[in-house]
Protein 1
Amino acid sequence: MSAYDRRDLGLLLLRLGTGGVLAAHGTQKLFGWFGGHGIEGTGQFMESVGYQPGKVSATAAGLAEAGGGTLLALGLATPAAGAAAAGGMAGAATVHAPNGFFNQEGGYEYAATLGLAATGLAIAGPGRLSLDHALGHVFDRGWMVPTALAATAAVTALVVGARNKRLDRAEKEEAAEEQFDEQEALFGE
């Protein structure tokens, strides 16, 4: 087996593993498969962690994971698929970041690993054992990599930024309410 063949086989295995895991997580969010909570339950969770509206956020995250993961596994539209999955994982990592790095403590380790693998595949390309290769790389042009990654980074920054502002505002309102309650208790009003 030549080095080129080993590279293609390695990319295939990485695509299947990363894409398969992402697709499974996405179907949990979208359809409630594999013990997931579907759009309704995931939407409620999304609202609780600051992503609003919850159902829209759940749908976007589910499509980024299920769609991006499926396309990565197939090796089709690899730049867009990898970028979409990476964006979804960046949003997930933001939720887990306050818990530190390691997954066992609820940290962002898992989301970061999937996001980096998806980004790496978007950059490296799918290899010859892919639908992109079979179709003559119509959906896998060199210019598509920076375009897809930049667009996804911009949208992710906007979504995560809006979430963070929402959470900061809620935290300030809660602190003000607690201060009011303390003053009310102190002065008996």
Note: The chain has a mean pLDDT of 93.
Protein 2
Amino acid sequence: MKKFKQLNNFFHPLKTDLGFEFTPFVATINDQIFQVMEATEEDIPTLMAFETEVYHGVATWSIGKFRSELRKDNSLYLLVYHESQLVALIGARFYLKETHITNLSVVPDFQNQGIGTWLMELMIDLARQKSSELVSLEVRIDNEKAKQLYKKLGFEALFIRKNYYCDLQLDAINMVLWLKPHRLKKREK
């Protein structure tokens, strides 16, 4: 939890209200119809079951973590349903100049169908609407599939967060998609 809180202060520490209302909608992805809606605290039991399915019997976030995230003024968590089944989730926090993706998950039966890519593109579009300069995220160092998705979308690896996933004793790679021109200052040796 401590490492997760550090994300808030990495690029732009100021919080901002979302400034828009999310309206549920229906989308067609690869000839399948999905319903997209904003998550609320009432969805937490469904989210816990969803996490257990996605992560093979383990919920990576607690009820308290979901509750905390869903209560934040600057957070948006979207649920994707196929018929009555929750098949995907994406979450992000919007700051003054940065959008940080906190979660992207798709149930195994719906993976490799473009849903994750579509959700990332949706969140990137929302970040642009909010005038974010960048979109950031963390990905497990051993999650090759996710790293390839993010690279395909234009994200670049910035640095490694040692032991970020404490329970698994795994590092994470911080990745960034620059939406506006930027300059990184290089250290002189």
Note: The first strand starts at residue 25 and ends at 29.
